[in-house]
């Protein structure tokens, strides 16, 4: 009886040990699978963020160019130098009045992973927190871009209807237009108009704020890229 009992206990221990080993192997496999998935997600995000960084740089440069042109246009009324005033060409005026960037850096991979709840695969808490900040800065930028677009559509676009000879300006983009009998545009006179100057001033203020928010988003993109590269190298 004693020998049988010892034998039974031994069998039970062997079964328990076997189960524990199987569970450990299963956990190891699951962790390995999860790690592989995490690396794949991080690499996809890195590629997406690298592309977004390039786009962000280009968009910031366009905004800075627009800001400089708006300042030049607004300053026309205060400048006595005739050659300075002649710098307001068709192309310059067109950019000042109608140009604006509505684009955001493309974060398709991040948004897809967010919408499918796959960001949870990222174990690094600092990276996860940084993506929360990125999301916040992204939405802040989107909001002010919408604000500027609304001002453009509701207020600034009226300049083309009420203050300029739009057909003459179209010659810049559509050379086939015959503008021989069109009245030339006196940009200096238009830019002395208080309403026009105020509208361009509103656009300048929004553009300045947009540059700041684009730079904030750009900083978050760069910080995330650094963290992800460090994580992938570990």
Structural summary, described in words:
- The structure is a single chain.
- The longest helix has 74 residues.
- The protein is rod-shaped, with a radius of gyration of 31 Å.
- The protein is built from nine helices and no strands.
- Helix 5 packs antiparallel against helix 9.
- By secondary structure, the protein is mainly α.
Topology:
Blueprint: H1 2-75, H2 82-85, H3 90-98, H4 108-115, H5 125-156, H6 158-162, H7 166-170, H8 187-190, H9 194-233
Amount of beta strand: under 5%
- Distance separating the two termini: 57 Å
Q: What is the makeup of the main sheet?
A: none
Number of strands: 0
Principal-axis shape = rod-shaped
> What does the radius of gyration come to?
31 Å
Q: Point out poorly predicted stretches.
A: none
- Mean pLDDT across residues: 84
The helix content is over 70%
* Order of helical and strand elements: HHHHHHHHH
Q: DSSP helix count? A: 9
Query: What class do helices, strands and sheet pairing give?
Result: mainly alpha
